[in-house]
Design brief:
Layout lengths: L3 H9 L27 H8 L5 H13 L1 H9 L43 E7 L3 H9 L9 H6 L9 H16 L7 E8 L7 E13 L2 E9 L5 E11 L1
Antiparallel strand pairs: 1-3, 2-5, 3-4, 4-5
The structure holds zinc ion.
Amino acid sequence: MVDPGHVFRRAFSWLPTQFASQSDQPVGPRRFGSTEHLSTEAIAAFVDGELRMTAHLRAAHHMSICPQCSAEVDAQGRPVCTTWYGTIYRGVEVAGPDRPAADAPALPTAPSVGDTARAEIPLAISTGAAHVYTECARIWNPVHTDSAVAAAAGLPAIILHGTATMAMAVSKIVAAEAGYNPERVRRVHGRFAAMVLMPSMVTVRVNSRTPSIGGEAVSFEVLNADGGRAIRDGMVLLRE
Ligand SMILES: [Zn+2]
């Protein structure tokens, strides 16, 4: 059980220590100069992702101009992000009994929406998208950039990386559902299924947006030019 008062105090503890309230009373807004550093508690709340949006953005802004506080955040040695992923190996023998992967935190359940999408957002995939993404993401699997390798692998042409499709889809969702603010993204989930060829038009289909713990859950899928699900079971968790 979370003590709301504790969360509240932490949310405001980015205030300079001498101004931080020692009671549960709200602390009024005040402007601070760049020389006023984040408190130790505020640093901890920031790296734990526990600050409310306004406080989080103020703290992030301060760190963008303050090497000292940035260094304190770095010194916490906390993960910037954590990735859980699974891969299908076809035609491979396995040894031993089934063993589930280490648990990822459970996702909120998306409501069943049938054919009624919340939004359908067109997304143009350029001819050179996979080459650009390869160099930017440093993922040099040649099925994405060399048509001879793609053909040898039985593919109709080079295909776009699933993570590239995911990145572009999440950008569209951040624009449409989070006011263009990527700081609101807490977590992203999806399964890569159908192929995306280049150039092509794909569709980011936003199915629902529902309240979730600490924010909102936006469920989505990405349909390729043939209507296949390039990404299915998509979910973007937005902080409040
Ligand atoms: Zn500072």
